[in-house]
Structures are given as structure tokens and as C-alpha cells.
């Protein structure tokens, strides 16, 4: 028993010193101190897995981060862009320098607004592939959609089309089946990103690849928030059918999305096969949309997704519309939102009433009273679980992608957003947003602050631990 207490004391002491010396933010440090102290042994284990700031320890630095930096294919050159609104040049410059890709003109963008529309478009374009199909997803889940995809890919492999698939080992855990093994036997290259191996679990478990990308023949791409899962086309739980946004992209933005995949493919496989004109053809002018690919990840020097969202708040003159299922902004972003309201910008936040995470829901609600008091309009979708990650500013620019409003997307996940500097697209999305508001419950500040003490306590606990999510 004395030995057990000694081990516990030493481990807690080490964890406390580590938090105090290397904690990135005070709120996060306080959260981890509480976890370590309140939960014997388990708290230390959780901190070691999910909280340790490995960038401060040379012997625990993420090997994969260094490896990814050695194969950085991002464009660093000047963007040949024309901004009708000069101030947007500032966010373009910020994101180019923090994330790697400049804004590029002459893209054709098609908005895909619900699951059946998304997958009908994806399967139609996949059926036309002639050279290669590259797929990368956080969640690939067994079901009718996956079976349909596998059958289509088997047909394309038979016709000589190359197929490569990357999937997040945690998000897609357990998805492999006989169909996948048949794909591999026919020559498909299928690899997990950040596999959950005993020898690397400490350096990989907390860092997930949350991106959703498909590239076809190097000239057409899909990206957004929709995973490969039946939940987007039929009800599989009490949340009902998941609603989300996705993009079909043609033009120079395809090249940038493909370079994200190529970098991940090299990192995962050590194979430098995806170079040259076959995989990176010269992109033709396809439309009139100016857009920018924004990537985020723990291997970057800057929190580009956080920078993107914060800068969008600062650039707003009239209105900001936010739709996100995990609205847990950090202090920087919270202050940017309140500053926007206080200077006269209308800010509307839309979240789903139901959530797939009780902790996330309570963490969201913990900030609502403060935001409502400042003048933020908060709408709660009653009958739809919206998984969309959407921001619209002044009905002139819009962001769609994989990045949530939470610490995980800002610091731990590999994410990819599409920032569209296009008034027509932003207007269309704003109209859809306004229409959705009609099916929402609007939160009232005076009523909300009178909610019962039990709800407030749950939210308070969740708020303390929200930096750990």
C-alpha cells in the first residue's frame, strides 16, 4: 500500500510540474490540474495521453510532425488574385502565411446541401474517373453507402483506374470488411493515418486526421464536412438524419486539396509516387470563384483554423452567421465575437438541440449566457442535427469545411476548410441560413439565465473541462 501511494504521489507531482511548466494556456492548465488531482492514476494517464505538450519535450516530439514538414508541398508563392473588397486581402495574406496556400481564382464551386445530393454527386463523378481516385476521410463506416462505394471502386480497378484510400485509424476504427480486402487484392492502396499501435499510441492517439477529401484524376475534388456514413442519408439514431454541407470543386483549388492528400499519403506510406503531371496536372480555368484552401494541424507553427475564424469575426461590418455542432470557442474567439456585436455587427449562432456528446453540449451552453448578454442571437435547431461547419460574413465570404469551433480542431486535429470569397455563394448560403432560423428555438437572455441550478452546475463542470475536449 505504501508503494502504491508513493507511485501515486510521484506521478501526480510529475504531472502537476509538467502542467505548470509547459501548459499552453491557463484555463487548459487548470482543467488538467483538476483532472490529475481528482482522479487517482486515471487522471495522470489521461494527461499523458491527451494533455502532455509534446512540443516542449524533445524526447516526446511527434515524429510525424517532423516527417510531414520534410515533405511540405504547399505553394509559398504570391497569389495572383483580385479582391473587389480590399480588406479581404488581409485574411488571404494571414492564411497563406500560416497555412500555406494562397487564394486562387477561376474555380467552379457547387454547393451540396444534404446527404443524398452529396453522395449522388460523388458516385456520379467517381464513375467517370479515368486515371486515379484518391479518397481521405475521418470516418468510413460500414453500411449501404460504403458497400456502394466499394462496388464502384472494384469496377474502376478492373478498368485500370488507380485507387488510394487514407482513413483515420480512430474515426474509422473497425470499418474493414471483405469488400475492402477485395479492393486491396485488386491493387487498391488503403492505409490508416496515425494507426493505433502500442509503440506509438502516446504520440498519435490525441492527434486525429479530421479531413474529408476526394480527388478524381487531379481535376475534380470534393471537400467539406460529410463523412462516409449512412447517418447522412437515413436515421440511424435518435439524432435522425445528419445534415451537413459539402463542396464539389473544379479549378486551381483542386491542386491545393490534392497536395494535402499527397502530403498525408507520403507521411503515411513513405512513398513519393504522387508527383509529376499525371497527378498534378495544370489546372484549367473553370469558373469565377475566388477561393482559398485553409489547412490546420499540430505540425504547423500556427493555429490557422483559429486564425481564420477570429479574423473573419474582425472583418465583419454587418452580420456574422455561424452554424456549428460543437460551438466551444476559446477565449480569443469569444472576445472577437463579443467585440463584433458591441461594434454593431449582427451575430447569429445556430446549434442543434440534440447532440452526439453530452459534454460538448454542456460546454456549448456554458458560454451562452455570456454571449446572450453581449447581444449574440443564439438559435437552436429543434428537429435537425446539423453537422455543418459554416461561417458567413456580410453575405460576401463564406467558409465550409471540417473545422469545428473547439480546441480539438484548433490544436489537435488535421483539418481543411474552403474559404470562398464569392458574394453569390455567400448570399445563397445566407438565404438557406435565414430559412433554417424559422425552425429554430431562439434563446432569450432573461429566460436563459433563470435555468435550473442543476443545468448550471453541469455547464460549469463542462466549462472547466472544455479545454480538454
CATH names the topology of the largest domain as Endonuclease, Chain A
What do the pLDDT scores average to? 85
Unreliable segments of 5+ consecutive residues: 56-62
**Relative helix content:** 40-55%
Quaternary state of the chains:
single chain
Number of helices: 17
So, the CATH homologous superfamily of the largest domain? Endonuclease Chain A
Shape from CA axes? Answer: globular
The largest beta-sheet arranges its strands as 4-3-2-5-6-8-1-9-16-15-14-10-11-12-17
Largest sheet: 15 strands, mixed
| CATH class category name of the largest domain | Alpha Beta
Structural class, by secondary structure, is alpha/beta
Alpha-carbon distance between the termini? 33 Å
| C-alpha-based Rg, rounded | 22 Å
Count of individual beta strands: 17
Percent of residues in β-strands: 15-25%
Please write out the topology.
Elements: H1 2-22, H2 26-38, H3 42-51, H4 63-69, H5 88-99, E1 104-112, H6 115-126, E2 132-137, H7 144-158, E3 162-168, H8 178-185, E4 189-193, H9 201-204, E5 213-216, E6 220-224, E7 242-243, E8 246-250, H10 252-269, E9 289-296, H11 304-315, E10 319-323, H12 331-342, E11 346-352, H13 358-374, E12 377-381, E13 385-386, E14 390-393, E15 397-401, H14 407-412, E16 415-420, H15 423-437, E17 440-442, H16 445-448, H17 453-465
Parallel strand pairs: 2-3, 3-4, 7-13, 10-11, 11-12
Antiparallel strand pairs: 1-8, 1-9, 2-5, 5-6, 6-8, 9-16, 10-14, 12-17, 14-15, 15-16
Helix pairs in contact: 1-2, 2-3, 5-11, 7-8, 11-12, 13-17
Amino acid at each position: 500500500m505504501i508503494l502504491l501511494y508513493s507511485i501515486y504521489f510521484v506521478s501526480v507531482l510529475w504531472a502537476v510540474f509538467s502542467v505548470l511548466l509547459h501548459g499552453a494556456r491557463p484555463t487548459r492548465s487548470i482543467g488538467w490540474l483538476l483532472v490529475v488531482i481528482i482522479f487517482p492514476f486515471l487522471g495522470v494517464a489521461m494527461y499523458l495521453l491527451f494533455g502532455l505538450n509534446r512540443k516542449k519535450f524533445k524526447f516526446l516530439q511527434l515524429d510525424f510532425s517532423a516527417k510531414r514538414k520534410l515533405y511540405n508541398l504547399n505553394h509559398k508563392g504570391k497569389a495572383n488574385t483580385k479582391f473587389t473588397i480590399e480588406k479581404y486581402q488581409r485574411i488571404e495574406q494571414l492564411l497563406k502565411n500560416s497555412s500555406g496556400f494562397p487564394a486562387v481564382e477561376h474555380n467552379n464551386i457547387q454547393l451540396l446541401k444534404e446527404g443524398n445530393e452529396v453522395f449522388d454527386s460523388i458516385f456520379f463523378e467517381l464513375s467517370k474517373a479515368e486515371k486515379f481516385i484518391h479518397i481521405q476521410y475521418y470516418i468510413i463506416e460500414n453500411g449501404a453507402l460504403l458497400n456502394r462505394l466499394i462496388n464502384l471502386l472494384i469496377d474502376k480497378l478492373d478498368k485500370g483506374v488507380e485507387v488510394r484510400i487514407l482513413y483515420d485509424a480512430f474515426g474509422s476504427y473497425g470499418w474493414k470488411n471483405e469488400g475492402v480486402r477485395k479492393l486491396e487484392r485488386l491493387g487498391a492502396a488503403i492505409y490508416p493515418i496515425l494507426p493505433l499501435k502500442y509503440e506509438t499510441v502516446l504520440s498519435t492517439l490525441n492527434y486525429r486526421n479530421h479531413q474529408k477529401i476526394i480527388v478524381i484524376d487531379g481535376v475534380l475534388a470534393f471537400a467539406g464536412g460529410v463523412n462516409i456514413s449512412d447517418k447522412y442519408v437515413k436515421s440511424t439514431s435518435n439524432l435522425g438524419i445528419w445534415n451537413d454541407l459539402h463542396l464539389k470543386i473544379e479549378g486551381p483549388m483542386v491542386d491545393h486539396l490534392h497536395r494535402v492528400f499527397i502530403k498525408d499519403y507520403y507521411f503515411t506510406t513513405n512513398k513519393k509516387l504522387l508527383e509529376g503531371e499525371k497527378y498534378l496536372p495544370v489546372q484549367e480555368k473553370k469558373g469565377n470563384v475566388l477561393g482559398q484552401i485553409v489547412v490546420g494541424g499540430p505540425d504547423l507553427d500556427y493555429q490557422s483554423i483559429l486564425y481564420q475564424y477570429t479574423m473573419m469575426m474582425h472583418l465583419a461590418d454587418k452580420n456574422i452567421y455561424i452554424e456549428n455542432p460543437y460551438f466551444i470557442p476559446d477565449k480569443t474567439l469569444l472576445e472577437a465575437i463579443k467585440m463584433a456585436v458591441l461594434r454593431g455587427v449582427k451575430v447569429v449562432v445556430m446549434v442543434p438541440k440534440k447532440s452526439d456528446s453530452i459534454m460538448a453540449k454542456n460546454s456549448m451552453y456554458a458560454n451562452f449566457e455570456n454571449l446572450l448578454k453581449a447581444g449574440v442571437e443564439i438559435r437552436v435547431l429543434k428537429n435537425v442535427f446539423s453537422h455543418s461547419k459554416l461561417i458567413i460574413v456580410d453575405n460576401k465570404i463564406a467558409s465550409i469545411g471540417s473545422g469545428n469551433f473547439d480546441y480539438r480542431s484548433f490544436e489537435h486535429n488535421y483539418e481543411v476548410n474552403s474559404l470562398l470569397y464569392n458574394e453569390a455563394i455567400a448570399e445563397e448560403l445566407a438565404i438557406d441560413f435565414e430559412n433554417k432560423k424559422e425552425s429554430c428555438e431562439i434563446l432569450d437572455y432573461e429566460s436563459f439565465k433563470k435555468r435550473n441550478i442543476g443545468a448550471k452546475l453541469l455547464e460549469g463542470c463542462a466549462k472547466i473541462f472544455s479545454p480538454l475536449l
